[in-house]
Amino acid sequence: MKTYKESLSEMLDDKEFKKEYEELQPEFDIIRAISDARISQNLTQKELAERTGINQADICKLENGSRNPSLNLLKRLADGMGMTLELKFIPKKTTR
């Protein structure tokens, strides 16, 4: 049986798949950042919901990728975890 990384590596050989995967990367990064920050604070989704006033079901949807957060919602999450939200624009890598 193949591991996830092995399967992903094979799928990324397909140019169309790779393009779609890379276009979704910013969304994956946000999802990972939200859940990693919450876990680093040893908070459950319920506890974060209580701190932020955001419904626990909505936090779950954010973390599973079925809801896209607004900037205001990201700020509320950061505040609820005692963190500062930092947004960066980073130049794309160019291939020559």
The percent of residues in helical segments reads 55-70%
Q: CATH superfamily of the domain at 17-80, please?
A: lambda repressor-like DNA-binding domains
CATH class of the domain at 17-80: Mainly Alpha
- Tell me, rounded to a whole number, the average pLDDT: 93
| Helix/strand class | mainly alpha
Shape summary? globular
How much is the radius of gyration in Å?
Answer: 16 Å
- CATH topology category name of the domain at 17-80: 434 Repressor (Amino-terminal Domain)
Beta strand count: 0
Largest sheet report = none
GO molecular function, one term: DNA binding
Protein name: Helix-turn-helix domain-containing protein
InterPro entries: Cro/C1-type_HTH, Lambda_DNA-bd_dom_sf
Domain HTH cro/C1-type: 34-88
Structure characterization notes:
It is a single chain. 64% of the residues lie in helices and 0% in strands. It is an all-alpha fold and 96 residues long. The chain has a domain at 17-80: 434 Repressor (Amino-terminal Domain), CATH 1.10.260.40. It is globular and about 45 Å long.
At a glance:
The chain has 96 residues and is mostly helical. It is built from 5 helices and no strands.
Give the SSE layout:
Layout: H1 4-11, H2 15-40, H3 45-52, H4 56-64, H5 71-80
Helix pairs in contact: 3-4, 3-5
